[in-house]
Design a protein that fits this description.
Blueprint (H helix, E strand, L loop, with lengths): L3 E8 L2 E10 L4 E9 L8 E7 L6 H7 L2 H8 L2 E5 L37 H16 L3 E10 L2 H12 L4 E7 L9 H11 L11 H8 L5 E6 L5 H5 L1 H11 L3 E6 L6 H19 L2
């Protein structure tokens, strides 16, 4: 069944459209957004996936980052999945870092989460053919992935698992080593169970050691980010990349925090990074 358009906004010569659809992967209604740049009117354009962070929806990055300006400049379509299943009957938690709004882009195996929280399958298997069939101008032979915080974790791990699909990758303040930080330990214990042996497949710092790719990874991290030392720890990933021979640029941005003020400041660099890789 085709997705249902629920909102539409003109932006920088293109259009942000918001859709609802019934998800087989997540067993509920899901919402996503698409920014189609003006260049798509003349033919296929590369597709960039933007994965948002904890508590966010499709709207945060669209309203706060200026992403449409840069996507229009470079001729990239951007897809914005939600961060989790939502709605009545979908498992949830009182904490902001578990349950609705906190899917971590993995497939849960534990009750009560497994019934709905199949976000890896949703993003990598269910949404792409839906986009290809229903969104004119999407060139699915050229795809990249980026994201912020929890979404940065998703961008990195999905790239390492599907390097031939997401050939360009970047991240803003990503959770790079979820096995070693509170956000990741809480989510993985609940979604995947107590056996930490099952966690490594969803940890970018461990994945790069075994699955280094040909991509150049761009990461920006604010030095004034209040989550830096406890939750993010980008040096762990930088060191793992160096050991694995992975081409990566990890930039510490002095004075910037975890907010969309930070993301907006460096969004232009990230879109240019993807455009260079996807249009070469």
């Amino acid at each position: 069944m085709a997705p249902t358009a629920v909102q539409s906004f003109a932006s920088f010569g293109g259009r942000v459209e918001v859709f609802d659809h019934d998800s087989d992967a997540c067993n509920c209604s899901m919402r996503f957004a698409v920014y189609t740049p003006p260049q798509a009117a003349a033919g296929g354009v590369p597709v960039l996936w933007y994965l948002s962070g904890l508590t966010c929806t499709w709207a945060n990055v669209n309203e706060k980052s200026g992403i449409q300006r840069y996507a229009a400049e470079h001729g990239l379509m951007v897809i914005f999945p939600d961060t989790s299943p939502r709605g009545e009957g979908v498992a949830d938690d009182e904490g902001y870092d578990l349950g609705q709004g906190a899917g971590f882009y993995i497939d849960a195996t534990q009750a009560p989460w497994a019934h709905n929280f199949q976000m890896a399958t949703y993003v990598t298997e269910e949404l792409p053919p839906l986009i290809a069939k229903n969104i004119p101008g999407a060139d699915m032979s050229r795809q990249g992935v980026t994201g912020h915080s929890m979404g940065g974790h998703g961008a990195l791990t999905l790239h390492f698992k599907h390097p031939d699909t997401y050939t360009s990758v970047s991240a803003f303040s990503p959770v790079v080593a979820p096995k070693q930080v509170p956000w990741g330990r809480k989510a993985f214990t609940n979604y995947l169970g107590e056996d930490r042996g099952n966690w490594a497949a969803h940890d970018a710092t461990e994945l790069v050691a075994k699955r280094a790719t040909a991509a150049h990874i761009l990461i920006d991290q604010g030095s004034a980010d209040t989550f830096l030392e406890e939750q993010l720890r980008p040096q762990l990933f930088a060191d793992a990349c160096a050991s694995a021979g992975q081409d990566a640029t990890v930039r510490m941005q002095e004075g910037y925090d975890h907010s969309y003020y930070f993301v907006a400041t460096f969004m232009g660099d990230h879109i240019a990074h993807h455009a260079k890789a996807l249009k070469s």
